[in-house]
C-alpha cells in the first residue's frame, strides 16, 4: 500500500512538472514485478546515449522484473486513450536517440534492477543447453556476461561484435557484425529462437518455424517490430587461445584483394582459413600507435613515411587464428601457409598470442584507458556503411585519400568485406 501511494505521488508530480497526459491509474494497474522509477538519476541516465548528440527526457523509467512487465507496459500504452511512447534501452550504446523518448517510458533492459525472470518460469541467468549447443539469455544481458557464462561450459557464441558491453537485444536489433561474420554470418544469423513483446503488448515466441515473419522482422529490425526479451543463441566449442596478427599495406587494391581472398575461404576446413578478418585505415601516424592500434610496440613506433604510404594513407589487415593447447604445435605452420598468399609490406608483421576471452574483450581494455583520461564520456558520431564492391575504390579515393587524408582524424576507420550469402 505504501509503495502504491508513493508511486501515485510520483506520477501526479510528473503531471505537474512535465505534462504527463496518461492517466496515473493506468500505470498503477500494471502491477509490475520490477520498478517504475522517476528517480532523477534514472531519468537523466535514460535521457542520454553513447552518442551524446541528442537528449530526450522520459516521463519514467521501468526496471522490469520479467518479460511480463514489459508486455504489461506496452499493452497499457497501446490501449491507453491518451497514449504514450515506450522505448527499450540496452546498455545505452545507441548514438542518435533511437533508445530515447521524450513523451513516455524508457525500459531499462540492462539496468541495475533487472528482475529474476525472463518470462514464465525462466531464470534470467544465461541457461546453457550442452546437448543442443545453445544458450537462452535475457534480452538485456550483456554479451560479455553471455561469454563468461558459456565459457564455464567450454562453449561460446559463434559471431560477435568488436565491443562486448552491448546488450543481446540491442545488437540483434541491428545485425551484430564483426570479423567473424564472413565465416558464421552476423549475430542475427546465429539465433534459433526469440521471445518478443510486440507493439500490442503480446509476448510471443518466434523462430524459423514459429511466427517466422515476426522472427525475421525483429532480427535487424532496429526495434521497430518488437522488444526482444529472450534470445536462443547458437554455440560452438570455445578455443583456448588466439594468434592475433596485423600487417600493413600502402596499396588499397592489394589490401582489399587480400581481404576478399581470405573471406572466400569460409567453406574450407578450419586449418585452411583464418577465424577473423577485419581491417582499418590509418590517415594519421598517431593512430598507428594508440587506441585500436595499441597492439603495436610503443618502443618501435611505425611511421607512415617509413613504409611508403600512397597519399599519406596506410591500410591495416587484422586477422586471427584460434587454437588450443593440443593444436599449438601446428599453429605456426597453418598461419605461415595462409600468410604466404598475401601481399602485405614484409617488414610490417605484428603478432601476439593471448587467451580467447582477452581477444574478444580487447576494446574494453581500450575503453578503460580512455576513461582514465576522461576521453570516454564525449560525443561519439558514428557512421556504418555497406558499400558495393564495385564502388569501394571510389570510397578510397574520395574519402580516405581525399577528405580524411587532408583532414586528419583521430577516430577509428574500420573497413572489411562480408560474404552476402552469410
From TrEMBL:
- Using the UniProt record, name the top-level EC class of this enzyme in a single word: oxidoreductase
Q: Which cofactor does it need?
A: FAD
For the FAD-binding PCMH-type domain, which residue ranges apply?
Answer: 54-238
Keywords of the record, alphabetical order, are:
FAD, Flavoprotein, Oxidoreductase, Signal
Q: What is its EC number?
A: 1.5.99.12
- UniProt cross-references to InterPro entries, sorted A to Z: Cytok_DH_C_sf (IPR016170), Cytokinin_DH_FAD/cytokin-bd (IPR015345), FAD-bd_PCMH (IPR016166), FAD-bd_PCMH-like_sf (IPR036318), FAD-bd_PCMH_sub1 (IPR016167), FAD-bd_PCMH_sub2 (IPR016169), FAD-linked_Oxase-like_C (IPR016164), FAD-linked_Oxidoreductases_BP (IPR050432)
The residues forming the signal peptide are 1-21
Record has Oxidoreductase as a keyword: yes
Official protein name in the record: cytokinin dehydrogenase
Organism this protein belongs to:
Salix suchowensis
